[in-house]
Amino acid sequence: MPPPTSGLFVDPEFPPCVSSLVRGGGTPLSPLCDRITWLRPQEIFASPHLFPENSTLGLGKQGILGDCWFICACFALHKSNKLLHQVFPPGQYTWKDPEYTGRFTCRFWRFGRWVDVTIDDCLPCLGQKLCFSHCQDQGAFWLPLLEKAYAKLHGSYESLWAGQVVDALVDLTGGLVERWSVEDAEDNVRKKMLCRMLDLKDRCAISCSVLHSKEGSGHLGEFHAFTITDIQHGVTKYGQELILLRVHNPWGRSCWSGAWGKNSDKWSLMDKSDSAKFLNDLKDGEFWVENEEFLQEFNEVTMAFPVDEMDYIQSIWTDCPLLHTQQLHGSWVKGQTAGGSRNNVSFADNPKFWLVVKELSEVYLALMQRPQSEISADCTHRSQLRSVISKSYPLYAIGLHVWKVFIGNFKFLNE
């Protein structure tokens, strides 16, 4: 018997109502608000559970919300139980527990620290079905709950409409993420990218995006993100070597009719036993793409840096652990540190930081910009944060310039 729904926790800061769905309109979500109802998991599924017993059914499907970028980033959690438990702390009471109250807590990395976000488990539905994200195992609810917590962090579900995989990966992993432009890269750089993807496929999350479909290839959509779930070598009957990438579309349906699509004649070039290894375990929305076709059709690749057993972030280029990290905070203050671009005489007034390199080293510089709304709000007070983050605060273009200077020309204060 499913647990009762009366007397359960209802989040006053992110209540099950229209204000949590939209913040200003302007997206296709707004006209649907009157039709959306809020149901708890036990009202949707007879025996709800957080995680699927079969991990392969944990792949996410996108609903009517345009947050493919977030769904793709969640694949990082699907691949790492350690990360999943960091973001979704274990030990929380669920629907089978007598102590269940309808309350769940998730964690996100925000500007140098992990922030707890507590929600109720009332989820947006159309009819009796979830209308936003869900797992392939329809009884597993970790993903729609995580999506709700992320929506609360941003002020509304509508705020998740259109984003960057790189941003969601940082929020979910607390690590480093690198984005590569495939279409602008030279052939030798593309080959290097592909080699690194092949080496790291089992250790980190990799996503790819289509910004604009090539002529005749509209089936991939535009401004749409995908997940690369595997990369494998293959050999045809005639000895031709192939590199095939398995790509997952968060829409949950096949959208690929390329050379190595599921029903393509190309598979007859392989022995049946070999082609079966590629085709038999495809999940909903997955398809195989040959590497040359991949480089032609997709515009960007986003890769999260792996983390070793000692919790050190590893370089995606050398596999070396990055043993030292430093967070530095700066701000643009009018008349003091807001120097503008290099076209301005005040450019030198911008925030500056020294990096002293005493031996051959690998250095990564990652920039984040805190929205003005979060600067003035304590992240521990979610109602205050939500009231200010729901307003429109622009982000400013960040310039990053690194200059090599000779130490003899400068004297540091601590010397």
From TrEMBL:
One of its GO terms (biological process) is proteolysis. This is Calpain catalytic domain-containing protein. Gene3D superfamilies: 2.60.120.380, Cysteine proteinases. It comes from Pyxicephalus adspersus. InterPro entries: Calpain_cysteine_protease, Calpain_domain_III, Calpain_III_sf, Papain-like_cys_pep_sf, Peptidase_C2_calpain_cat. Belongs to the peptidase C2 family. It comes from the Eukaryota. PANTHER family: CALPAIN, CALPAIN-10. The keyword Ion transport does not apply. Transmembrane segments: none annotated. GO terms for molecular function: calcium-dependent cysteine-type endopeptidase activity. GO terms for cellular component: cytoplasm. The active site is at C68, H224, N249. SUPFAM superfamilies: Calpain large subunit, middle domain (domain III), Cysteine proteinases. Residues 8-303 form the Calpain catalytic domain.
